[in-house]
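## retry 2 of 3
previous attempt timed out at serialization; input unchanged, resubmitting
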Amino acid sequence: MYRDTDTPIAEDTRARMIAWRRDIHAHPETAFEEHRTANVVAQALALMGLPVHRGLAGTGVVATLTNGDGPRIALRADLDALNMQELGAAPHASRCAGKMHACGHDGHTAMLLGAAEHLARHKPFRGTVHFVFQPGEENEGGGRVMVEQGLFDLFPADAVYGMHNFPGLPRGRFALRTGTMTAYLDTFEIVITGKGAHGAMPETGIDSIVVAAQLVNALQTIVSRRTGATDAAVVSVTQIHGGDTWNVLPETVLLRGTVRTLDAKIQDRTEAAMREICAGVGQTHGAKIGIDYRRGYPGVVNTPDETAAAVAAAASLVGEAQVHTDMAPAMGSEDFAFMLQQRPGAYIGIGAGEGENDPPVHNPYYDFNDAILPLGAAYWVALVKRQLPAAG
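## retry succeeded, writing output
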């Protein structure tokens, strides 16, 4: 049975993790604007005696700890906050109107800093660990930008690992799976061009509003009638814009939305079906329908050997029974996927829940659970000790 006192993280490091986390939480910065956050991280790493590289994806920070020859691994945390207003009343609540650490990236950063401090102090391994602090995870693909700007050329790694807090999973537990962990994320924008007319004389125009209604319904058949019952997919129209007054049929209507899939083949088929439906509905009504379909984040796909290493590291801390190795894939998305496209690796969820009423991530009352900071840092340490040979 896991006890917090079982983790190897020293009391002074635990105190610093809380201080780092709450300071970052109080000063949230969104994608590619994490200048203060990057300064906090870089200064902390420098005080540990680690060489620090800055500038990948603008505000990214990477520090390296080498202790002799051996394998090389990368550990990744995310830096950015969300564009939303915090409603909680904690002393460390956001001081920036309209910005909030509502996904726990403040905690992810603090846990990796804590692990870096422990490893730099004790050096229990032979090889190299890169500590990667990535900007712009929320919507903006900072992971992709870091990779494109040479992350693994500058910091060669045999494997890369990520972690995220799960408020819906009880504290003291971990969850992951081999294969697809999170969904492929795509977005779309559809412009319907009809023929504007007086609202009392619709026969003189082509009603783009009616076409839009038909199209929204038709798009739902992709999941209900074109996708197998065991193949997960979501097609959601999330915006409809059209019209300015009560008695005019608008010339155009704009639809926007998102597509989520768990398999690249289903992703391809869904896009093809959307284009086919748009063409067919447009022809049926005599309207022009243009679709801009944008591929976003790929799915996070854990590789078998690295997943087994992550499971073993977590189990060494909490016991095998507390590591759920067959979690259902999530329809949310994560740009850690871009790093996993370049290197084998694994992404794990760490339980942060204390009860049924805990706010979920992306909720205005959410706050990272500081009680899991030592366990998260200890997981990183256990993973390094498992993946790199012991110091001799």
